[in-house]
């Protein structure tokens, strides 16, 4: 009797999965922000001019916050790297954020080390609108870097700045959903369990 009940229980589970009615818990997702192009600035006191560069920040959509007093979306970055032609790749040694300044300055995004005082780079990327910083975006063309109100970003290799955009540059946000089993995989697993249960009857 027990084995027969187990068989029908597992069969019911397979049916639920097949119909797509199995409940799934909502999961946060990693998101990667990439600014890549050509620019000028300084790397640990050394000036670079018209060099290829890539700034990459990684965050988690679950950590979405806002800039106090302005209701601007921002995501703290768990990692941020700076790859500039002619230098070794550096990683930020202070907490950095990605934010959209849309309600203050349209089409302006920033990588910053403080929600109140973006230190690294504020840049103009037409088409950002009211982007919530936790969804896919771009690639968008970046036309200029705008000010460095807080100074350079501290990294493991020294302070880094990108003070100007001097060539084609783009910004992209890529959402990477947490991996979950495919429905077909769950169905096959359920069928396998049913076969095992039936053979043991």
What does this entry look like structurally?
- The protein has 201 residues and is of the alpha+beta class.
- It folds into 2 domains: 2-17 and 181-199, no CATH class; 30-175.
- It is built from 2 helices and 10 strands; from the N terminus they run H-E-E-E-E-E-E-E-E-E-E-H.
- It has helices at residues 2-19, 183-199; strands at 30-43, 46-60, 65-67, 72-84, 90-91, 96-100, 108-112, 121-125, 137-145, 160-175.
- Strands 1-2-4-6-7-8-9-10 form an 8-stranded antiparallel β-barrel.
- Helix 1 packs antiparallel against helix 2 (183-199).
- The chain is globular, with a radius of gyration of 24 Å.
Describe this structure in a few short sentences:
The chain has 201 residues and is of the alpha+beta class. Helices cover 17% and strands 43% of the residues. It is globular.
């Amino acid at each position: 009797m027990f084995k027969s009940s187990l068989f029908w229980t597992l069969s019911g589970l397979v049916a639920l999965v097949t119909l797509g009615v199995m409940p799934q818990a909502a999961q946060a997702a990693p998101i990667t922000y990439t600014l890549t192009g050509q620019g000028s600035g300084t790397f640990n006191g050394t000036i670079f001019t018209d060099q290829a560069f890539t700034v990459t920040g990684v965050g988690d959509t679950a950590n979405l916050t806002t800039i106090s007093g302005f209701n601007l979306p921002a995501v703290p970055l768990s990692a941020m790297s700076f790859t500039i032609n002619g230098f070794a790749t550096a990683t930020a040694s202070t907490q950095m954020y990605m934010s959209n300044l849309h309600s203050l300055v349209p089409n302006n995004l920033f990588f910053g080390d403080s929600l109140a005082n973006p230190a690294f780079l504020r840049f103009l990327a037409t088409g950002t609108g009211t982007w919530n910083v936790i969804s896919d975006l771009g690639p968008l063309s970046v036309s200029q870097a705008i000010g460095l109100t807080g100074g350079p970003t501290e990294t493991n290799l020294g302070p880094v700045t990108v003070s100007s955009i001097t060539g084609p540059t783009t910004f992209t946000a890529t959402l990477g959903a947490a991996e979950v089993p495919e429905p077909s995989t769950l169905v096959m697993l359920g069928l396998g369990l049913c076969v095992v249960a039936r053979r043991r009857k």
